[in-house]
Amino acid sequence: MAASAPARTGAPTAPGTPTRHRPRAALATVLLVLGCLLAPPALTAGWARAELTDTARYTATTAPLSRDPAVQRNMVTAISNGVMRRVDLSPLVDAAPPAQRPAIRERFTRGVRDFVATQIRGVVTSRSFPALWNRVNGTTHASLVTALSSSGERTVELDLQPVVDRARARLAHTVPAGARLIQRVHVSGTTLTLLRSDEVAEWRGPYAAVRTLGRLLPVAAVLCVAAGLLLAPRRRRALIGTGLGWAVGGALLLAALAAARGYALDVLPQSVTRATGAAVFDTLTASARSGGLLLGAVGLTAAPAAWLTGVLAGRRRARREVRAR
Questions:
Q1: Do residues 117 and 171 touch, judged by C-beta distance below 8 A?
Q2: Is 229 a member of any domain?
Q3: Greatest mean pLDDT among 83-97, 157-171, 239-253
Q4: In angstroms, rounded to a whole number, what is the distance separating the alpha carbons of residues 325 and 322?
């Protein structure tokens, strides 16, 4: 009497997926999904940390703005407005009869404004302006870093006085009458308040979070993906999924930056033109957009490459089996 076959217990195992590999495959899947989800915020946090904490990098990033026509026009207008708010024409107007003073003040105001704007424009469009721009931006950024990373309350301002001083020197050097005008009319610079002293404390928490997350998130994303690929029983399939996840993550990051750009341009103060805001936003976020494009490109390259490698490997196995028969 033939012995009966031993009874099989448990649910049937999926083809090609041994039961002993299921916990490993589940852990690999979790790690890869987490790595793909972390990729966009990791790129964003790394970009923000670099721009907010590294003055040299920020200065290098914003350097091209000194040659942007929209930024130059906006700067000429902003500085001219700031200077005119501080121009004291009393020494010139008070010498005239009282009845003529309003007309003289209006005429002098218009003439001085055009004169000041011309000199400011000459400085802003000069060859030496990029170095002055970098110095002003570097000083402002260093002041911002100091205020956000230390205790106490201090106002963070963009001081444009160096530009005004350069215009005064240019005026006195190129226009003889300008020297006399400077002596008779008090002209001071202008400052733009970036953070009031009471706002600095509110931004210290987000600043510290960006510094920490900008360092940890990229490392965590890379480690999750690397560990997931090493643990995956089917690495080729895992690489295909990871590539698709990266492609989606890159697209989402670019979409988020586009939405942020639209919002930023809609809430610009009246003193900043839309063209200037667009130039500044695009310049500051250029590396973040490049990161999103790179993430998507790597994903769209890795997924098809892994799939094609699998197809070719399958054909080679099929040919070997045919020869073996």
A1: no
A2: yes
A3: 239-253
A4: 5
Tell me if 239 sits within 8 A of 229, measured CB to CB: yes
Measure the CA angle with vertex 188, ends 87 and 190; round to 5°: 105
How many domains does the chain fold into?
1
pLDDT, average across residues 112-138: 87
Cα 272–275–280 angle (5° rounding)? Answer: 75
CA nearest to 188, candidates 283, 116, 262: 116
Task: Give residue 181's pLDDT.
Answer: 54
Residue 201 near residue 153 (C-beta atoms within 8 A) = yes
What percent of the chain clears pLDDT 90, i.e. is strictly above it? Answer: 43
136/119: higher pLDDT? 136
Backbone angles phi, psi at 88, to 5 degrees: -105, 105
Q: Is residue 14 assigned to a domain?
A: no
CA 64, 69, 72 angle in degrees (round to 5)? 85
pLDDT digits (tens, 9 = 90+) for 216-260: 999 999 999 999 999 998 889 999 999 999 999 999 999 999 999
- Helix pair angle (22-53, 286-324), 10° resolution: 150
Answer yes or no: are the C-beta atoms of 133 and 58 closer than 8 Å.
Answer: no
What is the domain range of residue 136?
Answer: 21-324
Residue with tokens 């670019």: 254
The answer to the question of residue 10 being in a domain is no
